[in-house]
# Entry
Amino acid sequence: MPELPEVETIARGLANAIVGKTIAAVSVSMAKIAIAPAGRDFAPELPGEIVAGVARRAKFIVIALASGRRLTVHLRMTGRLIYQPAGSRQPYPYTHISIDFTDDSRVMFADVRQFGRMRLLERDEVWDADGGIEPLSEGFTCELFLSMLDGRRTPIKAFLLDQSRISGVGNIYACEALWEAGIRPGRPAHKVSKPARRRLHSAIRGVLARSIEARGTSVDDYVDAEGLKGGFQNQLSVYGRLGEPCPRCGKPIVRTVISQRGTWWCRACQK
Ligand SMILES: [Zn+2]
# Structure
């Protein structure tokens, strides 16, 4: 599933490609994926709208329209947002929504497993993803993170995956940040020491920033808005590397399950 760096990369690519463009036509071939405000149809609402901006909030891509309305997109497991410039339009597999612009370019929402959603929000509709804090924002201070773990008995890895607390960190970056900070993923959050919490705060921000720099991690279906793979899969320390040597101590990486999610870590140097 795309996490913060992958969604950020897609949003930046789309921002470069479609801001200022006018929507000419929209077609929807899978109704459950396109959600309109109650009582209205999705496709007829959009022609004539101008794209004012594209940004990321949590794991959502948010397309702001000049009318003040917004399109929010969650890619879930296998969703893709693919941009095709004018003159290079061609069919894309599993396309369920096509947004065509007046310059003959388009954005397609493709999704093999059909769990992704594109939703049109009204101008004044209150929406804040799942409510967690953005880990790369100024507001996510070390002091705040330290206090967030107080009294939390859940495993630290499960805490990191809770989107109502911290936005956009999924399985890949939780595994990588815990390895970098030297913390056992199953350790109850409130039992992580103050120095370890500081290391983890720094590791979360560091791994996310480095992955954005590398245009995300392509270990499954993720591609950017141009249909290209990211590069951070070549920099992963533990995720998906069962049995390979830990880059820090050389002992083999193990895989366990925490909160139903595969968890890769080093028994020797994560405490
Ligand atoms: Zn190790």
About this structure: The first helix runs from residue 4 to 18. The chain has five helices and eleven strands.
